[in-house]
Amino acid sequence: MPAESRPLLLLAPMEGLLDFVLRDILTRKGGIDRCVSEFIRITNTLLPARTFERIVPELRHGGRTFSGVPVRAQLLGSDPHCLADNAAQLAALGPHGIDLNFGCPARVVNRHGGGAALLEDPELLLRIVAAVRRAVPASMPVSAKMRLGLHDDRRAEECALALQQGGADELVVHARTKADAYRPPAYWQRIADIRAVVQIPVIANGEIWTIEDARRCRSESGSQSLMLGRGMVRDPGLALAILRDGMGNSVPPSDPQPLISWDALLPLVADFWHLVRTRLDRKKQAGRLKQWLNFLRLRYPQAQLAYLALRSVNDPLLIDQWIASQRAPATPLITADA
After folding, report:
1. Which residue among the candidates 35, 104, 159, 217 is catalytic per the annotation?
2. What is the pTM for the complete model shown?
3. Which of 245, 212, 213, 205 is nearest to 229 (CA)?
4. What is the tens place of the pLDDT at every residue in 62-114?
5. Which CATH topology does 9-246 take?
């Protein structure tokens, strides 16, 4: 069983959702120890520095988010030599480690032999990790993220052992197969089975939406370190709440109130919109704000009102006006009755 270090809370990578903009915002209130970037696709080309920096712009700032949280850059591919060459190029830019993606369930990725499809070939997993481990400095961590399998979980332990043998320093396990997609439940007990056979730290991931989920996941998986994804997008105070709960400042799991109030969150929504406006293509801007509000409305009634107000708005200038109006004290979206 792996030795446990201080429990960590990691922010998950999510292609098309949890990019550098949302990483910046979600790490500003605290609770997150480390982020992992969305995947950088590696085929048969040695990528230039500008490509790595476009996906992980934190590389230009010491490999950390605006609030100082370290970011580990994630690579996705299936060719050990190409991954190793690109890992060496990436390592020179100073990320806080290299992560390897063996869990992406996207059909287009799996069809080309990447992501979760690699879990059908433990020997190839070993060769990929070993090649990357040799290519980067010994002081740079190399970690891996896996699902329980492609169609089923019969080879989960075999895959985890292959990743360890290849030289992975740490393993995140999303407790579902590719076939399970994102449907509940997550099979946290299978993480405990994996922990029983490997000697490296194992971090639990999947279906952690609340403090109670975090408690149950820790109990069933045996892992005190967690990776949070959609739960953090829905409730930006989740990591802080889990951290406080783990320190003995227990928060009742039935408490309906988020740790970060809507009034405290609204400036972050405005900052998010500012980053979207200045860093993303104009055609994508309105959609990105509505995407986040669509998650937030599952936790905040006020976000539901905001989503309804902006659902049919696509002109960024009109959204600018709406954002500015929310700072006025009389706005109906942040009244006590909202």
Report:
1. 104
2. 0.92
3. 205
4. 999 999 999 999 999 999 999 999 999 999 999 999 999 998 887 777 776 78
5. TIM Barrel (3.20.20)
